[in-house]
Amino acid sequence: MAGPNEKAAAGGGGGERRKYPIHMEDYELYEEIGQGVSAIVYRALCKPLDEIVAVKVVDFERTNSDLNNIVREAQTMILIDHPNVVKAHCSFAKDQTLWVVMPYMAGGSCLHIMKSVHPTGFEEPIIATILREVLKGLEYLHHHGSIHRDVKAGNILVDSRGGIKLGDFGVSACLFDSGDRQRARNTFVGTPCWMAPEVMEQLHGYDFRADIWSFGITALELAHGHAPFSKYPPMKVLLMTLQNAPPGLDYERDKKFTRNFKQMVAMCLVKDPSKRPSAKKLLKQPFFKQARSTDFIARKLLEGLPGLGVRYQALKEKDQHLMAQKKMSDGKKEEISQDEYKRGISSWTFDMDDLRSQASLNVKTVPYAKIQIYLSMTWTVYRIKHQKGHTC
Ligand SMILES: Nc1ncnc2c1ncn2[C@@H]1O[C@H](COP(=O)(O)OP(=O)(O)OP(=O)(O)O)[C@@H](O)[C@H]1O
Fold first, then answer.
1. For the chain, which residues make up each domain, given as ranges?
2. Do domains 24-103 and 108-179+189-306 have the same CATH topology?
3. By the 8 A CB rule, do 112 and 315 touch?
4. pLDDT band at 63 (very low <50, low <70, confident <90, very high)
5. In the CATH scheme, what is the code of domain 24-103?
6. Which of 3, 16, 151, 259 shows the smallest number of beta carbons within 10 Å?
């Protein structure tokens, strides 16, 4: 991936052949199809080109990222050229917002599809096909010196023909950058359940192998319908990732999955990053021999699926309903989690019904989780380091 150039800086990257306009008046926003920490994504019409696109509207006031970084991420997306990574057609700023125009991925994210119709996860050939495509995207990014830093089912998008692309460069980092960006690799970025231990620890920084850990967690997420530890409050996720043995597919409990799948996941989820394979090496694993075509994905995942907007709205309503049912706010729960941690890990107790309902909620507890963990980071790492001798 080249560095940002003037063409991209002007917002006129414009896809391979078509020139996408850089004025908001040229886009008609339709229904909401996704929401992130600081952005809302819409299906939209690019009027001059008469083409359906996705427009991500990033609200500068809602993001805690540096403005230059956000703009640079959008520019990076414009320069991307790989079938398994979402490219931005163009981007432009308007008032307090940045508009990023992308190809419309009609299937939505794997997380959305899973929540709508496969709540307990996908079958193995589907997982192998999705993961092979994701790995090809990661291989490309890593080869060009980039780390994605937020690999998870919610950021794996499916197009109308079953094509799989890695999206969301909200937190990606360039390996060969210096200054601010270099410092960014020593900061705490990502989503707790998918985050590699070395990213949490913040001791020696991290490299592309952090994506391989997240990739392994994503494999478990696609297999079970949720990421390991997703039921727990952020502080506990942090502790479990740092102190417990890495999660994996259980040889007994996960009988329906092959040995090859279990081995592939185990290779990714090694705590020592230097022992994790590269994306290129992983692609050679026998597990991927069962991966099929994009037609297979279209047939298996997209046939009979309601439109993305309809599904998104239904999930949002379900989440809101579950949120309303929750007995405690996330803030209160996290407070208790920290208090209990101070008293000793073994004294933690959980309301399983509540945790189950939390687990099926959409990932929108993440902004809170990110902030909360960031603030608690120094204290927690200190505690863990000083507890190790007693608890491990
Ligand atoms: N090109 C696209 N086509 C269809 N849906 C999309 C597209 N881009 C994003 N989405 C949907 O919007 C959701 C949010 O987008 P995105 O992840 O880019 O926002 P974000 O603010 O960076 O999120 P976060 O930081 O929470 O991961 C995605 O999970 C996906 O469901």
1. 24-103, 108-179+189-306
2. no
3. yes
4. low
5. 3.30.200.20
6. 16
CA–CA dist 30, 27 (Å, integer): 9
With cut-offs at 50, 70 and 90, classify the pLDDT of residue 242. Answer: very high
Choices 3.40.50.2300, 1.10.3720.10, 3.40.50.720, 1.10.510.10: CATH for 108-179+189-306: 1.10.510.10
34 vs 2: which has the higher pLDDT = 34
Asked whether the whole model's pTM tops 0.90, one would answer no
Q: What's the ipTM?
A: 0.95
Alpha-carbon distance values, 278 to 35, 197, 298, 324, 392 (Å): 31, 17, 28, 43, 29
Q: Is the CB of 162 under 6 A from ligand 1?
A: no
Residue whose tokens read 């929401």 = 35
Query: Residue 56 C-alpha to ligand 1 middle, in angstroms?
Result: 8
Q: What residues are labeled active site?
A: 150
- What is the total residue count of the chain? 392
Mean pLDDT of 118-145: 96
User: Which of 157, 218, 302, 315 has the most ligand 1 atoms within 8 A of CB, as the residue to mutate?
Assistant: 157
Decide: 91 in ligand 1 pocket, CB within 6 A: no
Please tell me if the CB atom of residue 370 comes closer than 6 angstroms to any atom of ligand 1: no
